[in-house]
Amino acid sequence: MEKRHILIVEDEIKIARVLQDYLKNAGYTVSLLERGDDVIPYIRKQPPDMMLLDIMLPGMDGMEICRELRKFSNIPVIMLTAKAEEIDRLLGLGLGADDYICKPFSPREVIARVKAVLRRSYPESEEKKIVAGPISLDENTRLVTVNDAELKLTPSEFGFLRILMTNPNRVFTRNELLDKVQGYNFDGYDRTIDTHIKNLRKKISERLPDQDIIITVYGAGYKFNI
């Protein structure tokens, strides 16, 4: 099987080299970019399988890169940030990022995040289609449609929707969803699931404005209702 190609965009070269070493040792092919304005042209010519993207970059910041990228590509993105404020994390995820890693980071955390995002972005499974009312989800093609019109989702949004659709009316806690979709649950990370669910609800409600598809069960979690 061909090695997955990961693009690291980081202007602090020492951090970039450390990440590169971690990922190469884990069996990935790795490329490095230091400037934000080089990213979009690079990806248009040779799209990687995943990108680790710093927020603060010369030329174009990570938020703007993520916004531009999502206009033409759904490659998974993990944001890198030295800012601990929750608003920075949630804003990054709201722009279509799939995960975040806070600096300083540990090798275990980086590899766990990368493997989990790649696993749910490029699943190796038999063809399976889930249909619930007007919503159809194909696990093999990663295609989600609402009333036969494609619904564009990030890999994380797809994963959460798949779990909820597979178990209609079952209430999942945040921790359960994270374990099933992300494959891990580091301390403090569970709150970001609210952002993924919020974005997922917004996309579905644009097609089904009069239906509440994903229900919040206060004090418990979320369930799929159709």
Architecture overview:
With 226 residues, this protein is an alpha/beta fold. It has 2 domains: 5-121, Rossmann fold; 129-224, Orthogonal Bundle (Arc Repressor Mutant, subunit A), CATH 1.10.10.10. Helix content is 38%, strand content 20%. The protein has 8 helices and 11 strands. The chain has helices at 13-25, 39-45, 62-69, 86-94, 107-121, 155-166, 174-181, 193-207, and strands at 5-9, 29-33, 50-54, 77-81, 99-102, 129-132, 135-138, 143-146, 149-150, 214-217, 221-224. It has a 5-stranded parallel sheet with strand order 2-1-3-4-5, sandwiched between helices. A 4-stranded antiparallel sheet has the order 6-7-8-9, covered by helices on one side. The chain has a two-stranded antiparallel sheet with strand order 10-11. The longest helix has 15 residues, at 107-121. The termini are far apart.
Please give the share of residues in helix.
25-40%
Structural class: alpha/beta
**What is the N-to-C order of secondary-structure elements (H for helix, E for strand)?**
EHEHEHEHEHEEEEHHHEE
CATH superfamily grouping of the largest domain: Response regulator
CATH class bucket of the largest domain: Alpha Beta
How much of the polypeptide forms β-strand, as a percent range? 15-25%
The coarse overall form would be globular
- Distance separating the two termini: 40 Å
Biggest sheet, spatial arrangement of strands: 2-1-3-4-5
Q: Tally of extended strands?
A: 11
- CATH topology assignment of the largest domain: Rossmann fold
Low-confidence stretches: none
